[in-house]
């Protein structure tokens, strides 16, 4: 597979929950000034997720990346890591939600990714996108 | 399904390197200790199920996702 500057091929060894058989995804960014990204299955054409880079819109989202996950993704430094959240905009944009409890963590230098299911009940699976965009999410809010 | 009866502090071995121990029982709450290799993912079943369902709902076609992003950029430009 070809690796281009604006499209990364990422290998998900365990697939994604609900899509365990899909291992290869393409991550791309449609607009330079946008926090949104695409996560397109390289194997099934009609499966694509809308991703959000949370750190482009909030400073208050944080979680501990479990050590076993760091080892599986061969993460050595924070500069290896890119974090995204899957946006659920099934109904409509105004009611779109963001999955903060299971971030997609990618080692950009090793092209390995995993959707990490965090054992942190304070992080919502369906945080309204509106709240995030208005900075109403995270510790101290 | 294999069904075993265990008392407090008793354990179950699964394969060579997974041990599940009943640490405490209090009413209908049971505290379980799990020793397993690091590469074994352990989740509360209801959380994993919720994430699976959420992902299935969130999956769209690329065209639909592109439309959403265009809309979002459009909204942002107008405000």
- Tell me the series of helices and strands of chain A, N- to C-terminal: EEEEHEEEEEH
Which class of secondary structure composition applies to the elements of chain A?
mainly beta
What is the mean pLDDT of chain B? 90
Average per-residue pLDDT of chain A, rounded, comes to 89
What level of helicity do the residues of chain A show?
A: under 10%
Largest interface, counted by CB within 8 Å of the partner chain's CB = A-B, 36 and 29 residues
Q: Could you tell me how far the N terminus lies from the C terminus of chain B, measured between alpha carbons in angstroms? A: 58 Å
Main sheet: strands, sense, barrel of chain A: 7 strands, mixed, barrel
Q: How large is the count of helical segments of chain B?
A: 2
Task: State the secondary-structure class of chain B.
Answer: alpha+beta
Radius of gyration of chain A: 15 Å
Estimate what percentage of residues of chain B fall within beta strands.
25-35%
The best one-word shape of chain A is: globular
Helix content of chain B: 25-40%
Number of strands of chain A: 9
